Amino acid sequence: MTSGLISIMVRGCPVPVKCYLAGISSEFGRFSDEYRVTMAQRNDNGVTLTVLLIVGGIIDHGGARMKTAHQGGHRVTLLFEIKGNSLDDGPGIRTVVFFKGCPLNCAWCHNPESKSPGQEIAYDPNTCIDCGRCREACLEQAILPGNPHSIDRTRCTLCCACIDACPSGALTRVGFEKTVEEVVRIALRDKPFFDNSKGGVTLSGGEPTMHMDYVADLARGLKEEKIHVLLETCGFFPYDRFRELLLPHLDAVYFDLKIFDDARHRTYCGASNNRILDNFRSLAHEATGSGLALLPRIPLVPGITDTDDNLHSIAAFLQECRVSKVDLLPYNPLWHDKCRSIGADTGMAVGPGMNGFMHRDHVRHCWDIIRRCGLAGKDG
Ligand code: SF4
Ligand code: SF4
Fold first, then answer.
1. What is the pTM of this model?
2. Which atom of ligand 1 sits closest to the CA of residue 152?
3. Measuring from atom 6 of ligand 2, which residue has the nearest CA?
4. Which entry of 66, 282, 321, 372 is 20 to 30 Å from 122 by CA?
5. Domains of the chain by range and CATH?
6. Which atom, in ligand 2's list, is nearest to the CA of 143?
């Protein structure tokens, strides 16, 4: 795919040839589930006619796409949390908006509920009172009597009848739609706290840039209200669209750099890092002398990103980009429980050191490497 926005509203097609969109859809296995595409094929005298109904737009995201949709003329997208009073996601007191969907597939993702661009169901065994109402409500028999606390995700149609029947809140929807205007209104409630603490709104995920049009509208709306806007990104986005649509409305970017070696990045993050490194280079160049605060961050993951070799390589890259500050994010194992709650596989990322918090001596060792390479922490 080439980069750019493809906005399509197709209801049938008079051209009796195999539609090239069918080729696009076959490139992405779950295309029809995630993008509300209805596709029918008919074979007329040996010629395939493909009929498509696509609701919303499709954005090329270099291999990953999110639908954009409108409700009553308002742009809407799928979020999984809006968290107020955060002190961990940028300067001051912040409201953090978490977007669904990510183009990477990091083995240790600390927000595994963010990965899928679609809605999911989470189950909390600590809240469940084992009343069985969810099983009774499920017409698909996806909640089996022999395994009452586990949803068979291959049968589940996401009808949410079990959630509505659950009296304890043990079952919850992961993912909800909000318009840009609704999110701006929610953020405005905390404006006095932002103003007093030099805080603002952080766009996080998931990967916010998968929702580029929505995020650009949101960032613009927040700036009109004089709210500081910070983007947290995995760096995998189409740079030209980012630069044109989103960058003008950002005050700060926290940019994750995980693994420098491309082969290891493909193994542990599910994609090449070429685009990420190119984007960082471009953004670092752009940020120089501008008002934009750019902070690279390295999540420390035992045996994967926290190796001396990886830290040295990233530090050298940052110096080449003339960036002098970096943040290290010590490993947090709480993602294991989140994976279980949505029935996701913890996969390969359960190696040594993966089950507990990182020892502070090791974090200190990582910082020593970074500082010896001439870089400083975010606070100097
Ligand atoms: S969402 Fe619907 S299909 Fe899925 S487990 Fe619940 S009741 Fe069953
Ligand atoms: S309805 Fe809720 S509380 Fe009852 S068994 Fe199902 S998940 Fe547990």
1. 0.78
2. 5
3. 134
4. 66
5. 5-59 (no CATH), 74-116+175-372 (3.20.20.70), 120-174 (3.30.70.20)
6. 6
